Amino acid sequence: MRDAIKKSDVLIEALPYIKKFFEKTIVIKYGGSSVDGKGIDKKILEDIIFMNYAGMRPILIHGGGPFISRMMKKAGLSPKFIQGRRVTDSQTVHIIDRALHIINRTIVKTLSLMGAKAFGLSGKENNLIRVKRMRSGPDLGYVGEVTSVDTTVVKRLIEDNIIPVIYPIGIGRDGNLYNVNADDVASEIAVALKAEKFVLLTNVRGVMRDKNVLGTLYHTLRAGDVTRLIKNRIIDSGMIPKAEACVNAIKGGVKKSHILDAGIPHALLLEMFTDKGIGTEIVK
Length: 284
Description:
Elements: H1 2-20, E1 25-30, H2 42-53, E2 57-62, H3 65-74, E3 81-82, E4 85-86, H4 90-113, E5 118-122, E6 129-133, E7 143-149, H5 152-159, E8 163-167, E9 169-172, E10 177-180, H6 182-192, E11 197-202, E12 220-222, H7 223-231, H8 239-251, E13 256-261, H9 267-272, E14 280-283
Parallel strand pairs: 1-2, 1-11, 2-8, 5-8, 6-9, 7-10, 11-13, 12-14
Antiparallel strand pairs: 3-4, 6-7, 9-10, 13-14
């Protein structure tokens, strides 16, 4: 009986959030070592399907860095990174495209087998992600920064209750493919769609004052706080582009950004449908 009461309490707590986010667009980015040719964690996909069934409009943008590196090594190429970004020559960018396509196809198939309608998209199609070659800093080759996003196809999909699954390859004015940071792509798509929420799933609980002490987790930050924490080196290394992508989304009109640990089972549902949440939310 007590277990049944606890379960009903969870449902009652979730109800106002389900009502609040009905027909709202939620942009979710997921990457890291757990994304490979076999797809991604099914618990993440279960959360996305739940959101879809509850009347929300989730959009998934995924990366796949470790899988890309393995495919490069099979082709006899050594992955090289400068300031956390992959050096990308003309051969590498096509390997990246193939690797991400494999992951994308697997995710879409898995979502379909789990009962959802999903459709895979590449940033190079339908002018979805237009880029220019990144010029600031060292020469990284075919690495681009987003100049524009065309969400026409994405809007049609979510209006038809289909989950778009997008991978971040962009195309430049020169017609070449470019490797693009998935956090940046997801943030720009969230802005273009005027999303209710932008969620970054990563391998840490969120922004913490001390990375080794869970009790120092910031549950809520303002955009200005993020800038200060970067300056004070509390947010550093690989967390900087993620935090900056969240701030970019907020400044572009997205209501809230979130950084969550994808390793926590059903992290999305716990953050979206509970009063306290489990990660860091960033607000204006």
